[in-house]
Amino acid sequence: MDLSPLQRARYEYQPKLPSILTEAIDTVIPVKGESTSPSSDQDQIKALFPNTYGLNKVTFAKGNNEEIKKQINVGVILSGGQAPGGHNVISGLFDAIKKANPESKLYGFKGGPSGIIEDDTMEITSEYLDKFRNTGGFDIIGSGRTKLETKEQFELAKQTCQKHNISAVVIIGGDDSNTNAAVLAEYFLQQKANIQVIGCPKTIDGDLKNDEIEVSFGFDTATKTYSELIGNIERDANSAKKYWHFIKVMGRSASHIALECALETQPNICLVSEEIEANKTSLAGVVEYISDVIAKRGNKGLNFGVIIIPEGLVEFIPEVKALIDELNDLLAKKADLYSKLTSTEEQVDFIISNVSSESAAVFSILPSSIQMQLLMDRDPHGNVQVSRIETDKLLIEMVAKQLDKMKKDGTYTGKFSAQNHFFGYEGRCAFPSNFDADYCYSLGFNAFMLIASGLSGYLSSVKNLSAPARDWVAGGIPITMMMNMEQRHGELKPVIKKALVELDGAPFNYFKAHRDQWAIDTCFTFPGAIQYYGPESVCDLTTRTLALEQSK
Ligand code: FBP
Predict the structure, then answer these.
(1) CA–CA distance, 246 with 71 (Å, rounded to integer)
(2) Model pTM?
């Protein structure tokens, strides 16, 4: 296989670990911390998770641990969207397993959670793994979005594990996948299957976080990749001075990615879905806000700028959200009738005559391309695939119309020419930054320490992340403590609470304090490409979000 120079160099990179995990592995023992409970819905969650409710947090300390040398087989699953660093979670897990006992084995379930159900299993050997160390992607074993949630699936998973003598499974995924990891852990305990389940917090979206999980892996690298590109576009805009760039960035619900990129690049506008929802801003209101900024700059002769749009925006605009909810319901209930309609006109008429008059009115004003995107297939979790809705183009079209009106009434004298971009897939498989390379390796190594401690239903946790890696704190957090009950497809279900942008949090407050100036003046900053080699002050920096959240 041909290798790029960076690929070759990254194979040699030795990720940093919290100092306790650098000790000889048989001299580290688990230490029980406080017992836990979820912040709400305790009774319901306790009833659903009798074996994994109220467990203690765990950290590690020095101590004799002969037990850790026992031979075991572990399985690993990559679940959901790619996030830089997944290969390093597997590397850390593998290295810890082999350190404890070179006879122990790591198996990968291929293609995501379906791999464990269908027994699509491979042994991960040292030789195979070495080609993936410190590289982006999930191609080491592949990923997928199959939901692991039914008893039949759990039984099949149990059979696969028993066939390969696997006594622990590590699930690397986001909030939904880790919710399912907790349900699977509970099931195996109820069944006395002797199979432990440990989760690892993954998603570029950054929305799997709480007091115990400071950040999900991949967020650091993905936002740095997008910020590099946004900075480059800002320089281009500032050079040519002729385009407004509308840039949609990934993040299917929360706006953490958009906000982090804004903190890194100081664009003229960054929309934050959570604020739009809190203020109940309508689509027309969003268009007016953007148009006003463009007009203010245009009237000063500044006919260029950069606007960051979070991918999930449409689901936070109240009237569009109401429309999407009605569409989800309608397309699920009348799927047969809808599938018989062949022309776009028939489909549009069907929608307009089957939703409320308010939603019909919203649907009617949308460009037909957006109408069709809202009707596309849902993902396996029943969600609209927001990455396929061209919000950037929708806003350009609506803003252009609004600016035409403003021209006519004399409030806008500039020129408007726009370019649209979508940064999503570009960032999900980048070479992990040093932070993600180290964090992921630590999460994987730590996952083995939790397994060796006999735990199940825990999420691998590495904290104190704005400090140097040696000062990070490794441990385990019972997943049930992160859960609450939520309505999902008409049923009340236990799920890990998704972390949206906090409007009273330090990152948003910093942005809010500066955005009016960034809007009108040109204050762009240019983060440049991720640096892998050089001074720590450049290479090991974490995100602005984490730095602001952890600044005392
Ligand atoms: P996860 O939550 O599984 O980590 O995936 C997040 C994400 O990258 C979103 O930002 C995006 O909306 C979605 O995946 C795209 O999914 P797909 O890869 O299936 O197109």
Answers:
(1) 55
(2) 0.95
